[in-house]
Amino acid sequence: MDLSRHLRHFLVVAEELHFGRAAEVLGIAQPPLSQSIQRLERELGAQLFDRSRRQIELTMAGRLLVGEAGRFLAGEERLRATMRRAGDGELGILRVGVPPEIPAVTLHALLRRVTEETPGLRLELHELTIPEQLRRLTSAQLDAGLVHHPADVPGLRSGPVVEIPLGVVLPRSSRLLAARPQGAWEITLADLAGHDLVVFPRETSPAWYDRMLDVCRAGGFSPVRLQHARNPEFLLGLVLAGHGVAFEQETMARREPRLAWRPLAGAPLRRGICVAWPEGAAHPAAAGFAALAAEILAQDATAGTPQAAPGTPPSPTPRPWSVVYSP
């Protein structure tokens, strides 16, 4: 029995107190309307209208049902609206994996935008390496993850890809910086010849790892030795200790004031990053979140700072934190 439909019929009849007029309002014939009311009365076990007089009147049960029916139908509409919002990804929890190297400003922007645009959706962030994210995505333990592109994992869909140009991270005391001509801001890959390279383990992102080394060799930089670091802080520590240089975005170098960041001439290294999510039984908010994350990552990748301005010589007094030091 379609209880909601019968209750709507009942409310119109209760308003008009005339089956003919109620049938006109509802746009149906009178006999089906009378049958609908009779079936509702049988279902509820109570007579709703007194038909013994020339004009029908509500019985005591009918008067009580008017209020109850209104509340029931309003509750049904709230339920449907809630389910529509949940189906559109506007409600609930979205479990998202983020790599350890993600900048704090990017996380803040993601959380703020999601709160502003979908206040009923809560992000549950998990700090995980790329391999850990991929494992959890394929086993449906995560709804979405911020991963390197391409992920090369079957069963995953991905959103827009943002390419982030990488520069060189090295100690401010590096002889390479001291030997640079006045005004020389960019560094070529060939300039790094003779240095070791601090890099993430290959299993973290095999395709990107191999491509990076191929680009380095093609540019005249074959690292003397490779040092692997899973954790961003460990990577920075190795660079600071003189165990090699690293390729990262500028926000990474700004974590440590004793490190410097210089852009690579021609920007030969660009790391693709995107949001991936399981293809089967995808969270309804995953695709929208992927587009929003790509927008924020693109802004972060192109945000200019005094240190990163192309063609601008380094400041005599290093100012690594643009938040603290104004341009």
Summarize the structure.
By secondary structure, this protein is of the alpha/beta class. Helix content is 41%, strand content 18%.
Topology:
Elements: H1 3-16, H2 19-26, H3 30-44, E1 49-50, E2 57-58, H4 60-87, E3 92-98, H5 104-117, E4 121-127, H6 130-138, E5 144-148, E6 156-158, E7 162-165, E8 167-171, H7 175-178, E9 197-199, H8 206-218, E10 226-228, H9 232-240, E11 246-248, H10 250-253, E12 259-263, E13 270-278, H11 286-302
Parallel strand pairs: 3-4, 3-5, 9-10
Antiparallel strand pairs: 1-2, 5-13, 6-13, 7-13, 8-11, 8-12
Helix pairs in contact: 1-2, 1-3, 1-4, 5-11
Write a structural description:
- By secondary structure, the chain is of the alpha/beta class.
- It has 3 domains: 3-87, Arc Repressor Mutant, subunit A (Orthogonal Bundle), CATH 1.10.10.10; 92-163 and 273-302, 3-Layer(aba) Sandwich (D-Maltodextrin-Binding Protein, domain 2), CATH 3.40.190; 164-272, Periplasmic binding protein-like II (D-Maltodextrin-Binding Protein, domain 2, 3-Layer(aba) Sandwich), CATH 3.40.190.10.
- 41% of the residues lie in helices and 18% in strands.
- Helix 5 (104-117) links the parallel strand 3 and strand 4 (121-127).
- Helix 1 crosses helix 3 and helix 5 crosses helix 11 (286-302).
- The radius of gyration is 32 Å and the shape is rod-shaped.
